[in-house]
Amino acid sequence: MKILGVTSCPTGIAHTYMAAEALEKEAKARGYEVKVETQGSIGIENEITEEDLEGATVVIITKETAIKGQDRFKGIPIVKVSIGDLIKKNGKNFRCSRSKIKVNLGWGGKTMDIRLKKLLEILLNSRDYKTVDQLAEILNVSNRTIRNDLDKLEKK
């Protein structure tokens, strides 16, 4: 899993960098590839490049301030989180797996199903038909999971 992040706070000083460090630490502890851009008072540091965008699973963005260049993340799922939650509750509220990313926000939560997005991309970009067996192998899941996902896509 490849995670990109952009952190920024209203003053652009301490919290920007604390959130970046917390996100990097948690992602690396879980064995994920991670790059975090900071947009602080001294400008953009560790800027996310076109190369970084390739193969990104998700972009995690702090929601307190407007992020510069958010349009470059088109086509990549974006999860917006509170900078305070990212710093204070990182281990408890940041949950990642191969097929889903869950970031709890307050009482509820926001879940994005990355596998469904990948399945849809495969189907739309394929020049030929794909069998359930082929899709299951590509996504490293069971045939039954593919059938369930196809049913979900059909209902949307």
Low-confidence stretches: 96-100, 102-112
CATH class (first level) name of the largest domain: Alpha Beta
Q: Could you give me the name of the CATH homologous superfamily of the largest domain?
A: Response regulator
- Rounded to an integer in angstroms, the radius of gyration calculated over CA atoms is 17 Å
Structural class: alpha/beta
Count the E strands. Answer: 8
Which bin fits the share of residues in helices? 40-55%
Instruction: Based on Cα principal axes, name the global outline.
Output: elongated
Spatial strand sequence of the major β-sheet? 3-2-1-4-5
- The appropriate CATH architecture of the largest domain is 3-Layer(aba) Sandwich
Strand-residue proportion: 15-25%
* H/E element sequence: EHEEHEEHHEEEHHH
Number of helices: 7
CATH fold category name of the largest domain? Rossmann fold
- Please summarize the sheet with the most strands: 5 strands, mixed
Ends distance: 25 Å
Look at the structure and give the mean pLDDT: 80
Q: What's the structural domain tally?
A: 2
